[in-house]
Every structure is written in structure tokens, then in C-alpha cells.
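hey so u asked for the seq, here:
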Amino acid sequence: MDSLVFGDDKIKNDSVEYFTFAEKRQSKSVLISGKKKRDSFLPSRSVFYFDSRQKEEVEAVNFRKKYKLFDSLNYRIVENFKKTERGNSYLIKLHKNISKRIEEYNLQLQEKKSEFLKNISIVRLWNASMLTAVLVGMVTMSFIYRYLGQSASAKNDNSNDVVGKKEVISQQMVKGDSDETWTKQREEEYIENVTEYLREQDQKRFQKKVKKIVRGYPIEKMLPYIFKQDRLTSVFLLAIAKKESNWGKRVPVLNGRDCYNYWGYRAKRKRMGTGGHTCFNSRADAVGTVGKRLHKLIYDYGRNTPQKLIIWKCGNSCSTHSDKSVRKWISDVDLYFRKLN
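ran it, C-alpha cells below
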């Protein structure tokens, strides 16, 4: 309660009449400010609003500022007003000071950062990055040597041949540099070794791909013999077998047994299967016989594409076959020819 007014006379807040009047009419007051509720507070010192006395002080200060009355009385009024002036509480002042210091610190940090980058040249940055890379490499090599050992790669038996080829190539290069003579013969030997190494790697990738594609088909058991053929012959063996027998799932038989003829091959033999097809003695016999015939057609007669190799289906002439069946045969064989080659 900032002041009490009864009728036209103001009651002094230090009189008995004031306390009697207030006690009879007392009610519970609640101050809600800053999202908080306060049951106990002093209105004149809450600094959340101006009471009647502060209003008088504000008017006095404004009056003295307007007429420039600077004397000892003005000083006391202004100082007293500052103590209860709204917005200048201790916490607010503290917050402002902290915010100001943080802002100054950020400005100083930006200045230091700019000065640091200006003093470092691009060459120094490059040297620092190279030094870091060398240190990382040394730590990595130490880790490999410590936990894997010098002969870690030798544990894989399948890679012995590859390692041997690399060593031969490296020895030849070093030897050539030491002798300071790089003859035509050495150059040819070097190229031959590199070519052989690349060919072996390519053959391994090819075999891995084929094994994945034909997995689960009967022709899978013939792969060791098929891989002994050259690449082009191997591809045609697989492509034609897919078209003619679905890789061994539709085959001629003799006495209920598989004839191992997955290519529709017809040549008179003592043992003949269903449909007038040749019945081979074994898988090796089948691949060897058919592979030899394909090799001759490919390299002696230049029939190195599915279109040119249509003779495998038609014989000397396709006149007895429909155009549709001829196109279908070429299309199906060409599909796996491209996929495997």
C-alpha cells in the first residue's frame, strides 16, 4: 500500500489512525512480475513500478533538469531517485556488465585470430600439413609392423603367385637401374611380365564372376574344365549352354543317365542320347570335344560373334528355320556373351 486516502484528507502513514485503518481493511496482496508471484514485498522498494513518492521525485528531477537547477538539493534528489529508479536494480546492472565483458572478449578474440592468420604464410601451413601426414604415416606403419608383422601377406596361399610376380618385376627394375643399361630385350621381358600379371588378375576376376552366376546349376561342376579353355571359347561355351540347356537342366539322356551334352552338340558316336544328340563319356570329354569345335570356328573361320556363330544352330543353312527362331537364338546367346565377356 503506497498511500491511503480517506475522504479529502490524506492519512499519514506513521500515525495510529493509519494502522487502525489499515488493520480493519487489510487484504492479502500479491505482486506478479517477471513470471513470478510474490506474497511478501515492499512496494516502495520493489522497483517494479513507481509509487506516489517516486512520482514526486521524478517530477522534481524533471523540473530541475528543465530549468538547470544544479545545487546541493538537486544532488540529493537525483541520488535518491537513482537508488529506486526502475531498470537499475543490482541484477540488471550485473547482467549488463557481464554482457558487455563477453562482447569485449569476443572482439578481442576475433582480433587475435586475425593477427595469428596474418602472421602465418601459406608455405608454413603447407609444411605443417606435410609434417602431420608424415607423423600419421609413421604411426600407421608402426602399428602394422607391430601387430601384423613383416610377413602378413605371406599367410594367404592364394596370393603367393601375385607376390612372386611383383618381386620379379621390382627386381628387374632395380637391376636395370643399377646396370644403367635398359636394352630392348629387357624392355620386352618387363612388358611381358607385366602383361602376364595383368592377365592373371583378369582371369581371376572372370572366374569369380562366372562362379557366382552359375551357382546351383549342373554346369557348375564343369567349370574347372571350361576355365582351361581360352577366354573367348569359355564365354561361348557358357553362353550357348545357357541357351541350349539352361546350363544343364534340360539335357539328352541315355538309359536315364546324363549325357553331359549341354550345347545341343550332334556328332555320331557309339553312344547317342535322346534327340540324336551325342552322349559324352564324362564332363571333361564333353568340354574338351565341344571346346575344340568352338575354338576352330572362332579362330579358323572368324566366327567370333553370336551372329556369325549362328551356324551352331542352323548348320550350313538357316533356310529350314524361321527368322524368329534365328533372331531369338542370336539374342539369347548375345545376352550372356556380353554379360560374361
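The chain has twelve helices and six strands. Residues 1-11, 151-157, 175-180 have pLDDT under 50 and may be disordered.
lmk if thats what u needed
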